[in-house]
Structures are given as structure tokens and as C-alpha cells.
Amino acid sequence: MELSKEAIRRLLAADIEVSIMGGCYQCATARAVFYHHTIELTVEVTHPLLVWQCGNRDSVQLVKHEKNGRSVPITLVKALQDKVTQMRLAATMSDEMASDLSERNRQQIDALERQLNVKR
After folding, report:
1. Which of 24, 50, 69, 112 is the most exposed place for a label (fewest CB within 10 A)?
2. Phi/psi at 11 (5° precision)
């Protein structure tokens, strides 16, 4: 399956979500959502401090998820290599960087809640 120019454009512009999977490796994901399907780019890497314990996981997957639940793997195109590099960096950030990013996000959320008068 070939990736459309619009799908590439949306993936390049997509935010990167990072999550820790099972405490051993980190997963960075970017999604391009369309009406009938979603294109998902996923990069999985082992945190450098955990390679000795969990093994060295390093994979890149590009998948089209259709509304009917079917998933189709797609060949990675060269236009997405810079995005993959950004995702690897995001997934392997240091604990200090992750903590700083989390604090900045919390401050932005608090400021937005104050602006919108949202109470917790």
C-alpha cells in the first residue's frame, strides 16, 4: 500500500505521544486521522538505562487502521525519516528532560484552566 501526500503531510505535522510500555521500553506515536481510517507511525525503543535488563528494542511501524478493525502495514517512506528521528529522540529523552517537559505541560494546563475558569 502506498502512502498519500496528505497522509505524509499530516504525519509530519502530528504531535508525538510518548508512553512507557511495561516499564522496559518507550513508545512514540504519531497519528494522522482521516474519516474512514487512521495512519499510525510508531517507534519503539528501549530506554538506554534499561537495555541491560530488557534487551535492545528498536522498531518502526507504519500501519493503516481502518474503521472495520482491519490493520494494514505500510512501507515506510523516506519523507518520514526526519519524523522517525524526532520520535526516537522524544522516546529516549532523559528523565530530567521528561520531568521538565511534564512540569511545563502542567503549568500550561493550569494557566488554561484559570483562563477558562475551570475548577477541579
Report:
1. 69
2. -65, -40
Q: What is the DSSP letter of 51?
A: H
Q: For residues 100 and 59, what is the distance between their CA atoms, to the nearest angstrom? A: 26
The beta-strand segments (E) located in 2-91 are 17-21, 25-33, 37-46, 58-66, 71-73
**Per-residue pLDDT tens digits of the chain, which is 120 residues long:** 678 899 999 999 999 988 877 667 788 999 999 988 999 999 998 877 677 777 888 899 999 999 888 999 999 999 999 999 999 888 876 666 656 666 777 788 888 888 888 766
Cβ distance 8 to 64 under 8 Å? no
Instruction: Compute the half-sphere exposure of residue 116: CA atoms within 13 Å on the CB side of its CA.
Output: 9
